[in-house]
Amino acid sequence: MKSGYGKNTEKKNIGFKAMLADFIRLHTIDALLTVYDLGVAFLSFFLALWFRFDCRISELPAVYMENWLRIAPIYGVLTVAVHCIMRLYQSIWRFAGLAELKRILGAAAILFPLHLGLCFGIFGAMPISYFVVGSFIQIILVCCSRFFYRFVAVRKLEQMKRAQDIRSSRVMLIGAGSAGQAILRDISNAEDVNEIVCVIIDDDKKKHGRYLEGVPIAGGREDILFYAEKYKIEKIYLTMPEASAEERRDILDICKETGCELKSLPGIADIVSGKPSASAMRDVDIEDLLGRETVSVDTDLISSFILGKVILVTGGGGSIGSELCRQIAKHHPRMLIVFDIYENNAHSIGLELRDKYPELELVVLIGSVRDAGRIHRVFEKYKPEVVYHAAAHKHVPLMEDSPCESIKNNVAGTYNTAYAAMVNGCKRFVLISTDKAVNPTNVMGASKRLCEMTVQSFDKLLGMGRADKIAPPQADHGVYTSASSVGKCCATEFVAVRFGNVLGSNGSVVPRFKEQIARGGPVTVTHPDVIRYFMTIPEAANLVLQAGAYAEGGEIFVLDMGAPVKIDTLARNLIRLSGLRPDVDIKISYTGLRPGEKLYEEKLMSEEGLKTTPNKLIHVASPLELDLESFLGLLGELIGAAFADDEKRTLELVAEAVDTYHPAGEHGSELKGEVYDRQLGEMRKRDSRRISSSDLH
Which of 152, 325, 454, 578 lies most in the core, judged by the most C-beta atoms within 10 Å? Predict the structure, then answer.
């Protein structure tokens, strides 16, 4: 048995032998190159003399031959010395390129005057052609020795690639610009990439019929389907970082019909290095197919609003709440308080923020907005200056089955939080609302409309100096405080921000569809004609922050969600993005509208008008007139009925308080109406424009 010492000695011996072998190999190459350079120095200028006298040795003057024989050994030594100075024995010639060529030319530029000086100053004159032709031959022969290895290595790589072509994934590039060229070179030069680019598509007709790095530019977007089939394409890479979102969507709409794997280069603003590369390619996601331009916000305004303030986010562990926390943390608040009932989500966002922003003063609290005492004590202790109230129950069918819970959490929770904000000197309260609050057909939507009406009532009474008319919250243990002592001192600005569905939020359709596709289907869609508005979570969070910064009190901000999307189309696109075929590989099953669901959602109530803001994606709805005292009295009765779990009375009071609430039938509202017809018409026009623009028939 060998001792540990013996093993270490053996390892050291092996390591030493390997180092010695590398040393010998490298210096053997250097020695061979040195001998080669000496030979080239002799041969180049002999050939120059030979060419000068018509390639006849007998015609060479004896004086020139004598001078050459005396000069050649000294010039050979000078050549090796200059090549050492120019580091021509230290390069890795497998990767030789322009830098090495520059060093070879630099060495020749140094040797030329030295050679002239030796001849005319010491050994005797030589023909001018001797120096010019000899130097040229020397440069050529030195380059041949240095670049020969690279040529051999490249040829070997090409042979390997040709041998792998049969097994390689066949790729189509869309975009023959500088980004496409960079991606093509990356794929071609990478040894570990088992892909071959077969064809390039570009809408610029001047490029059609030409070649980029040896790959044909075959046609425009109208030819994608034809060439995908002709070249048996398996992957399509969209390499157009400067294209608009709508243009990218239109091209991807064609590409997904091929059934190929799709990848896309991000927009030019998202390429951090500024240099496109194959590693930057990402999978095409559903956001790309929505065709919405990236939302721009006034970061300076948001930053100046948040900087140095104590910020509270209720529901801070949820989809929107957690993204609000991420965006807020970027703008250096004095303190960020994450408040959520679900400890796992709160813990997760807390860990993420502490890792990313170690300097941030972060407080993560567990609690329910339904607990009036708990939320009041949080405000009393930390004195938040701005509140983003994202805590809510949001799933329509669940709230239809549990209407009292919807009122307890959404309405009572909003009332509790708004009241605590008011009596504890909070400067601004921002309610996160939903398009389901507009002409609601379900309890969840009606509860969010009640939340909007609540914050508008609070704001109006404060503006009138009548905070004492706002009753303290109710809780299981009764009333906990009163605003009568606060009176005119209250200065909280109450606003609401309304938007539609967010892609990828907990329980939303996109994650649900992806799970169903991963299981092999079927994908369940409630109705083939269901329409919804969509926005990404970061977009929604940023617009919420900017709307909050615009607020003056009492507004309902409406975010522009872009064009509506058919859920059926969304499902089919997700199936195609997975490389599968709808209704063939993955079945689509229509289950019927669930209780309380609409075919469409509206962003605005018919009674409301719109005002503009500096951001074209944020509008302000004119508030409705309310009988404030009557409404707040009815609200108190409603909350009491909900906490008493009296469902019948709760629903009656909801209908009384929200006159635009029209409950759907047992299987949901199937009345399309003018709004739905208009939205569906807009989508059909948009789709027909996209198809005609691509000349597809």
Answer: 325
The Cα 455–Cα 433 span in angstroms is: 11
d(CA 585, CA 608): 46
Matching residue, tokens 């969600």: 561
CA distance 666 to 28: 88
Instruction: Give the range among 141-155, 196-210, 267-281, 333-347 with minimum mean pLDDT.
Output: 267-281
pLDDT for 271 equals 42
pLDDT tens-digit map of 252-300: 888 888 878 888 876 544 444 445 555 556 666 666 666 566 667 788 8
Interior/surface letters 231-245, b for 16+ CB within 10 angstroms, e for the rest = bebbbbbbbbbebeb
Told to judge if 436 belongs to the known catalytic residues of this protein, a careful annotator would answer yes
Q: Are 46 and 68 in contact (CB under 8 A)?
A: yes
- Verify cis geometry, omega within 30 degrees of 0, for the bond prior to 528: no
CA distance 242 to 180: 12
Look at the pTM and tell me if it is higher than 0.85.
no
Among 696, 695, 683, 692, which Cα is nearest to 291's? Answer: 683
Is 171 in contact with 180 (CB distance < 8 Å)? Answer: no
The token pair that represents 80 in the structure block: 């090796």
Q: Which long-range contacts (CB under 8 A, 24 or more apart) does 274-282 make?
A: 275/182, 276/178, 276/179, 276/182, 276/183, 276/239, 276/241, 277/182, 277/183, 277/186, 278/183, 278/186, 278/187, 278/190, 278/193, 279/186, 281/183, 281/237
Residue whose C-alpha is closest to residue 502's, from 447, 546, 436, 556: 436
Beta strands 195-201; 565-566: pairing state: unpaired
Q: Check 394, 436, 566, 598 and give the catalytic one.
A: 436
**Rounded Cα distance, 281 and 254, in Å:** 19
For residue 376, CA distances in Å to 92, 337, 380 come to 70, 14, 6
Choose among 620, 605, 608, 623: nearest CA to 660.
605
Residues 441 and 669: beta-carbon distance below 8 Å = yes
501-503 vs 261-264, strand pairing mode: unpaired
d(CA 93, CA 544): 57
Neighbours of 460 (CB within 10 A): 17
Q: Please list, in sequence order, all residues whose beta carbon lies within 8 angstroms of the beta carbon of residue 672, skipping any fewer than 6 positions away.
A: 529, 599, 600, 680
